[in-house]
Known about the structure:
By secondary structure, this protein is an all-alpha fold. It has a domain at 29-57. Helices cover 84% and strands 0% of the residues. Helix 1 runs antiparallel to helix 2 (30-56). The longest helix is centred in the last third of the chain and has 27 residues, at 30-56. The chain is elongated.
Amino acid sequence: xxxxxxxxxxxxxxxxxxxxxxxxxxxxxxxxxxxxxxxxxxxxxxxxxxxxxxxxx
Length: 57
């Protein structure tokens, strides 16, 4: 991780934890929150790859 991606990952990882806790407690929204969790996970990965590409240029 780079200094640019660390805060982004920290904030979104915290959001993922919160979504996981809510999804665990409330089965009515579990499917929706699971989709959101995966979307956030993919966004983190995409951002880190983008920053890595930018740093190699």
